[in-house]
Design brief:
About 30% of the residues lie in helices and about 10% in strands. It is built from 10 helices and 8 strands. Helix 4 links the parallel strand 4 and strand 5. Helix 4 crosses helix 9. The longest helix is centred in the last third of the chain and has 13 residues. It is globular and about 55 Å long.
Length: about 300
């Protein structure tokens, strides 16, 4: 049975005293990892697990971090990378980053691991900052887990591709929100980021900004508060998927949604980059509303 959970810094410190069958992943940028990390952690970058942008994309989309589609074909490389990190399907993987400042990196890695079929994935609540606040040790030493062999077994309910999103929008002709856009209001309204093929949002989207998922201390909202956030945006029912720019913030939203509601929410990892690259698909800009008719 698959398990997703949050773990506090104090509990993590206890587990690391006897870290058998535990893999700890640092999802921050490499430079931050090199300056200091939790003992036993290994660094991984979310974009290293992605496919390449298609040939018709502009040059910027070929740079690391600008294309979010997860590698889902020719899995030998991904399986080898999992094995090099010492990951097994039945073991425990704990992921951390730097909370709000990391814009969902830990959520993206955790979501990916769950989609790849791992059974026990945990996220450090409050990230590296919470670890430091707890007075726990850090190191610059590089740790390597013993290599393992692992076969990826997809959990298809966790991911939705462009064709399926398009079909969803074509089949449901209502006006209520179907998609949660987790980007900033300025991104949602198409006001910033000229490198995107087209600026704006997918039809039938409601904007629930990533920055709203955190408490002042950098920890995630409680499940009760997260459900209240959904209710305030009329997103407690009927939402079918989440997206952002490249499927990073959206992955964090989906996992928090799952923890708060018990429902697995698919992530459109291609997000606005892939959608807006296809000229025949509608992109909405302007006023902030989940109702297309209001715009």
């Amino acid at each position: 049975m698959t398990s997703l959970s949050l773990i506090c810094a104090e509990e993590l410190a206890k587990l690391l005293r006897n870290p058998k069958d535990i893999v700890l992943l640092d999802a921050r940028i490499s430079e931050e990892f090199e300056r200091g990390h939790i003992p036993g952690a290994q660094s991984t970058q979310w974009f290293d697990w992605c496919s390449k942008a298609p040939a018709q994309a502009n040059s910027e989309l070929f740079e690391a971090g600008y294309w979010g589609n997860l590698q889902v074909e020719n899995l030998e490389e991904a399986q080898a990378r999992l094995g090099n990190l010492g990951i097994t399907r039945g073991g425990t993987v704990i992921v951390y980053s730097n909370g709000l400042a990391s814009k969902g990196r830990e959520g993206r890695i955790a979501w990916m691991l769950l989609y790849y079929g791992l059974q026990d994935v945990r996220i450090l609540d409050g990230g590296f900052g919470a670890w430091l606040s707890a007075g726990s040790d850090t190191t610059t030493e590089i740790f390597s887990s013993p290599k393992t062999n692992i076969e990826i077994v997809f959990a298809p309910e966790r991911r939705i591709d462009l064709r399926s999103v398009r079909n969803l929008l074509e089949e449901d002709r209502g006006t209520s929100p179907l998609l949660v856009d987790t980007r900033s209001p300025a991104e949602f309204e198409g006001k910033i980021f000229d490198y995107q093929p087209r600026k704006g949002r997918l039809p039938r989207s409601v904007n629930i900004w990533f920055e709203r998922y955190f408490e002042a201390d950098g920890k995630f909202l409680s499940s009760e508060k997260f459900r209240a956030l959904l209710h305030s945006e009329n997103a407690q029912f009927g939402i079918k998927a989440s997206y952002c720019e490249v499927g990073v913030r959206a992955a964090t939203f989906a996992l928090l949604y799952e923890l708060a509601t018990g429902v697995v929410l698919p992530v459109f990892d291609g997000s606005i980059m892939e959608w807006s690259l296809n000229a025949d698909l509608a992109v909405i800009s302007g006023c902030q509303s989940g109702d297309l008719e209001a715009c």
